[in-house]
TrEMBL record, chain A:
GO terms for molecular function: 2 iron, 2 sulfur cluster binding; dioxygenase activity; metal ion binding; monooxygenase activity; oxidoreductase activity, acting on paired donors, with incorporation or reduction of molecular oxygen. Keywords: 2Fe-2S, Dioxygenase, Iron, Iron-sulfur, Metal-binding, Oxidoreductase. NCBIfam families: PRK09965.1. This is 3-phenylpropionate dioxygenase. Pfam families: Rieske (PF00355). InterPro entries: Rieske_2Fe-2S (IPR017941), Rieske_2Fe-2S_sf (IPR036922). Residues 2-96 form the Rieske domain. Signal peptide: none annotated. The lineage of its organism: Bacteria, Bacillati, Actinomycetota, Actinomycetes, Streptosporangiales.
Automatic annotation (TrEMBL), chain B:
Keywords: FAD, Flavoprotein, Oxidoreductase. It comes from Streptomonospora alba. The keyword Flavoprotein applies. One of its GO terms (cellular component) is cytoplasm. This is Pyridine nucleotide-disulfide oxidoreductase. Residues 320-387 form the Reductase C-terminal domain. It comes from the Bacteria. GO terms for molecular function: oxidoreductase activity, acting on NAD(P)H. Its cofactor is FAD. Residues 3-298 form the FAD/NAD(P)-binding domain.
Length: 110, 390
């Protein structure tokens, strides 16, 4: 479990990047916290810098979009999903990401 | 519609094939391409690929699933040499032809070369994977001194890669400030500063008068008498739409294949997409965006209009492109005109970290950013909504 931030640091509609072996992007989508791989599966861009709309994140480079609930791309040019990670928020508002049990999705599932 | 022929097997051609299938076309779909390989993505060629951080597989535009789903009849490694509009027949260099109900021209653009450089070793352009492999090999042989002719986007990216490779690099640019026609003077000056700050020499305001060398290049001559010694020379001096094969076909050609904002040409059943397409608006003004995003997004509009047999949809997106130089990501959207005011909305120009808008008469005409993707996207979305058809 990685301590990511305090809930206060991640208001609704905001995102931030957490350094891990592979950087992880955290989003507050209408009160729900999601964690996915930060690097777009298309090319080289950081999804935490993307455009959050509902529970979809649009990549800031070529506008691929991913469903934060599943990691699946919902439009081109990305074809492969990003990994999603379980998030826990403790009673004090601490946000933790379980980077070890990344919910790995088999490639080609898109 | 039973058969469509797409000429040009790159981004715009592939996206056309994809869009046609997605929109329900289940007839014969032929894609002709003169390169002897499956379609690949070009932007990484001057970025990760040149540095060896991406390989051929990473560039593929289609994966196995796509190939199964799209059911394309490939004609690769063969050039289209003519188009008979009356029969909608594409003539190929091997003497065969493909007749179809609709033809999509997606032949892109071919790089400009300085006269007298043909056959001179060590002189390169960068458009194709073959070009990139040749350049990569030359950059890896010894420690060549490199001269990049043209300091625009691709030239600047190549110079940036050369500096990462530790090569002595000079950029030669005819304009006083490279990229000024697109970025405007203020932002272009900032971008030009990246070269010097990263140990690359920028010689500007002087045109090239000749290339030196017999058999192999030894340097570049400038109009003011300066000689830039070089073992490798790369020409990044723009590209011309690949329309030679359409001369005499009856299609209107004007620095590109002229089409309407729905990507349809005046000849029924013929569309143009991507770098080769010149979109002419109802007011007579025209543009040929020459960016990745246009080549990726125009095909959906073209496919819809071809299948409908009339221009139901328009391509209305504001131009957008990005460029990675010296570890800085530059993004730009919209159209800046001379005299537009630049207002920085975040960060600072001189720190190579900013988001800025261009304004004219109180209206935003364009947005530019360096390493500020998030603010840039917000600004870009504002421009997208305000964009006129052309
Ligand atoms: C090195 C490089 C870096 C780039 N970087 C960026 C970037 O960072 N950002 C950005 O927005 N854009 C960038 N671009 C531009 C972008 O790649 C182009 O806009 C895009 O490739 C256009 O796609 P297209 O399919 O229209 O044309 P092209 O990619 O040019 O493809 C046309 C295809 O048609 C083939 N062809 C031509 N004539 C014939 C014929 N007669 N018969 C059969 N086949 C033919 C060509 O060989 C080619 O395969 C870059 C381009 C290059 C070369
Ligand atoms: S890098 Fe994300 S869509 Fe291309």
């Amino acid at each position: 479990m990685i301590y990511a931030c305090h809930l206060d640091d991640l208001p609704q509609g905001e995102s931030l990047r957490v350094m891990a072996d592979d950087p992880i992007a955290l989003f507050n989508a209408d009160g729900e916290i999601y964690a996915v791989d930060d690097t777009c599966t298309h090319q080289n861009a950081s999804l935490s810098e993307g455009w959050l709309e509902g529970c979809h994140i649009e990549c800031p480079l070529h506008e691929a979009s991913f469903d934060l609930r599943t990691g699946q791309p919902t439009c081109l040019p990305a074809k492969r999903p990003v990994r999603t990670y379980p998030v826990t928020v403790d009673d004090d508002g601490g946000v933790y990401v379980d980077a070890t049990v990344s919910e790995r999705i088999t490639e080609g599932a898109a | 519609m039973r058969a469509v022929a797409v000429v040009g097997a790159s981004l715009a051609g592939v996206e056309t094939a994809r869009a046609l299938r997605e929109q329900g076309f289940d007839g014969r779909l032929t894609v002709v391409g003169d390169e002897d390989r499956l379609p690949y993505d070009r932007p990484p060629l001057s970025k990760e690929y040149l540095l060896g951080k991406a390989e051929t597989d990473d560039l593929a535009l289609l994966d196995g699933d796509d190939e199964d789903r799209l059911g394309i009849d490939w004609r690769l490694g063969v050039r289209a040499t003519g188009l008979d509009l009356r029969r909608r027949a594409v003539e190929l260099a091997d003497g065969t032809e493909i007749t179809a109900d609709a033809v999509v021209v997606a032949t892109g653009a071919a790089p400009n070369r300085l006269p007298g450089t043909a056959g001179l070793e060590g002189v390169h352009v960068l458009r194709s994977l073959t070009d990139a492999d040749a350049l990569r090999a030359d950059l890896a042989a010894g420690s060549p001194r490199v001269a990049v002719i043209g300091g625009s986007f691709i030239g600047a990216e190549i110079a940036s890669a050369c500096s990462v490779l530790g090569l002595e690099t000079t950029v030669v640019e005819a304009l006083d400030t490279p990229m000024e026609p697109v970025l405007g003077p203020r932002v272009a000056r900032v971008a030009a500063g990246l070269h010097g700050d990263n140990g690359v020499r920028l010689l500007r305001g002087v045109p090239v008068s000749g290339i030196r060398g017999i058999g192999r290049v030894t340097g570049v001559d400038l109009a003011d008498g300066t000689v830039v010694p070089a073992d490798v020379v790369v020409m990044g001096i723009g590209a011309k739409p690949a329309t030679a094969w359409l001369e005499g076909s009856g299609l209107e050609l004007d620095d590109g294949v002229v089409c309407d904002t729905g990507l349809l040409t005046a000849a029924g059943g013929v569309a143009a997409v991507g770098d080769v397409a010149r979109l002419r608006g109802a007011d007579g003004t025209s543009t040929r965006p020459e960016h990745w995003t246009a080549a990726a997004q125009q095909p959906a509009v073209a496919a819809a209009n071809l299948l409908a047999g009339t221009a139901l949809q328009e391509y209305r997106r504001a131009p957008y492109f990005w460029s990675d130089q010296y570890g800085v990501r530059l993004q730009f959207a919209g159209r800046a005109a001379p005299g537009d005011e630049v207002r920085v909305v975040e960060g600072a120009l001189e720190e190579y970290a900013f988001a800025a808008v261009y304004e004219r008469d109180g209206a935003v005409t364009a947005a530019a950013a360096m390493d500020r993707p998030r603010s840039f996207t917000r600004l870009r979305r504002g421009i997208g909504r305000a964009a006129a058809p052309v």
